[in-house]
Amino acid sequence: MVLQGHVGEIYTAQFSADGSFLASSGYDMQIFLWNVFGACDNFAVLKGHKGAVMGVKFNADS
């Protein structure tokens, strides 16, 4: 699986509890949400952080 979209280093990635989504974040101050199955599409980008995003976590119910 090749995920393209970030424009800088990726500092962290986390799978959802059920394993169906992946969140990645890093130097570009964005969080990308990915489908894990099928085409592994990026379905959302969370923007607005004022600095690099150093960590992401899903809550228990994803």
From TrEMBL:
The lineage of its organism: Eukaryota, Metazoa, Ecdysozoa, Nematoda, Chromadorea. Signal peptide: none annotated. This is WD_REPEATS_REGION domain-containing protein. WD repeats lie at residues 3-36. Pfam families: WD40. It comes from the Eukaryota. One of its GO terms (cellular component) is catalytic step 2 spliceosome. GO terms for molecular function: RNA binding. The keyword Repeat applies. Keywords: Repeat, WD repeat. InterPro entries: U5_snRNP_Component, WD40/YVTN_repeat-like_dom_sf, WD40_repeat_CS, WD40_repeat_dom_sf, WD40_rpt.
